[in-house]
Amino acid sequence: MLKGKTIFITGSSRGIGAATAKLAKEYGAKVIVHSEIDSPELENLAVELQAEKVICDVGDREAVMTEIKKLTQKGIHIDCLANVAGMRETKDFLETNDEDWLASFRTNVLGVVHMCQAVIPQMQSRKYGRIVNVSSIRGYAQGTLATRLPYGVAKASVINLTAALAKEYAKDGININSISPGGVNTNMAKDWGEEVRKRNSDVLLGRIAEPKEIAEAICFFLSDKASYATGQDFLFDGGYVIGK
C-alpha cells in the first residue's frame, strides 16, 4: 500500500507514532523516525525498521528546517508526512497560565506548521505529497474538557490548519487530512485512574483503541488508496462523539 514511499513520522518513539512507523514499514515504505530527544526506544525502532533517525524539537522552526535540509542533502525526499508528535497535561482551567497555553500551542500547532513548511516545498516540486495531522476528539465541542483546554484548543486549531492547507496545496498534488482519535491504549493510558478510563471507554464500541488501529487509519490516508480525500478530519473514536 505504501511501497516505494518515504514517510516521515514525528513523535515515533512510542505510542501511535511507533505503531505507525512499524505499520508503514510493513506496507513497504521507507521510514524516517523522529523524537524530540534520543532514547533507547527510538534507537531500537530505527534499527528494527532500518530507518533514518531524526532528533529535534518540532516547536523549533530552525531545528526542523535544518534536519529536513540534512535529509535532502543525503538524497532523501519525503513523499508523506505524519504529524503525530504532541503534548498534553491535565490542569483545571483557572489554574492554567500563559506558559501552559503557549507550550501546548508550540508543540501541538507550531510543530505541525514547522514540519509542513519544511516538507511542502519539496512535495510541490514533485507535484505529489500526502500529509496526515493527528488531532483529537478534544478538538471537538462534544469531546472538550475544562481540564484539558490548552490541549483541546490546540487540537481544534490543527483541524482548521489542515483544512486551510488542503485548500492551498491541492493544486500541487498534495493531499492533507487530519485524524482525531479518542482514547488510545498507549503507555500514558496505563496511568489513567478509574474515572478517566471509564470516560474514555464510554463509547459506542465500549473500549479504547489500540495504537495499531489508529496507525492503520494514518497509513490509509497517507496512501494512494485515499487519493480522493483532502481537507477532511476523520474521527476514529469508537463512536465517542456521536454517542454524546
Question: What would a concise description of this structure say?
Answer:
The protein is of the alpha/beta class.
CATH architecture title: 3-Layer(aba) Sandwich
Low-confidence stretches: none
Q: Count the helices. How many?
A: 7
Domain count: the total is 1
Structural class computed from helices and strand pairing: alpha/beta
Q: Which value, in Å, is the CA radius of gyration? A: 17 Å
Q: Strand-residue fraction? A: 5-15%
The helical percent reads: 40-55%
Write a concise keyword list for the protein shown above:
244 residues; 7 strands; alpha/beta; 7 helices; Rossmann fold; seven-stranded parallel sheet; globular
Describe this structure in words.
The protein has 244 residues and is of the alpha/beta class. The chain has one domain (6-236): NAD(P)-binding Rossmann-like Domain (Rossmann fold), CATH 3.40.50.720. Helices cover 43% and strands 15% of the residues. The chain contains 7 helices and 7 strands; from the N terminus they run βαβαβαβαβαβααβ. It has a 7-stranded parallel beta sheet, sandwiched between helices. α1 crosses α7. The longest helix is centred in the middle third of the chain and has 29 residues, at 98-126. It is globular. The N and C termini lie far apart (35 Å).
